[in-house]
Amino acid sequence: MIKLTEAYVTTEAEKKAREFSDNNNRIDKNQIRKFYDDFKLIEKKIDENQDASEEWFKNEILPHIKFVKSKIAYSAGRKSGNKFLVTRGFKEYMENQIDLIQSMSDFKTFLLHYQAIIAYYTYISEVENKSQQQRSHN
């Protein structure tokens, strides 16, 4: 079960975004977005089903959500140059979060958290990290 709390969509998400944008462990923003897009396609299937029940979700949707773990593992095992596409830390965190999803409510809450991570990640990598680079060049 995933509980919607202010911290889950703010401070916890920002902490993870900082971890994922760390210069030593940076993940390409496109990789983070790719998995989010996978989840949004799954969400669309839920939204299109007027009669979506929890049983239907568990039987028809949850396996697709759990399958994203294998896509993340694939990216964690692939390299671009000398760097893996996603870090082991990202893989482990996402697997743990996906394992917590048991209901439509959990999934919707997880999506809010993931969206917040992307938002913080974008800000940190585009604004904060660029400001630090400019200071170090001066």
Describe the protein.
- The chain is mostly helical.
- Helix 2 (11-21) crosses helix 6, helix 3 (29-48) runs antiparallel to helix 4 and helix 3 (29-48) packs antiparallel against helix 6 (104-137).
- The protein starts with 5 loop residues before the first helix and ends with a helix.
- Strand 1 and strand 2 (83-84) form a beta hairpin.
- Helices cover 77% and strands 3% of the residues.
- The model has no long low-confidence stretch (mean pLDDT 91).
- A two-stranded antiparallel ribbon has the order 1-2.
- It has one domain (6-132).
- The chain has 6 helices and 2 strands; from the N terminus they run H-H-H-H-E-E-H-H.
Question: What characteristics describe this protein?
Answer:
138 residues; mainly alpha; two-stranded antiparallel sheet; 6 helices; 2 strands
Would you spell out the secondary-structure blueprint of this structure?
Layout: H1 6-9, H2 11-21, H3 29-48, H4 54-77, E1 79-80, E2 83-84, H5 88-100, H6 104-137
Antiparallel strand pairs: 1-2
Helix pairs in contact: 2-6, 3-4, 3-6, 4-5
How many helices?
6
Q: What is the rounded Rg?
A: 16 Å
Tell me, what's the shape? globular
Ends distance? 49 Å
Helix content: over 70%
The main β sheet shows up as: 2 strands, antiparallel
The total domain count is 1
Strand arrangement across the biggest beta sheet: 1-2
Flag low-confidence runs: none
Main structural class: mainly alpha
Indicate the mean pLDDT. 91
The succession of helices and strands, N to C, reads HHHHEEHH
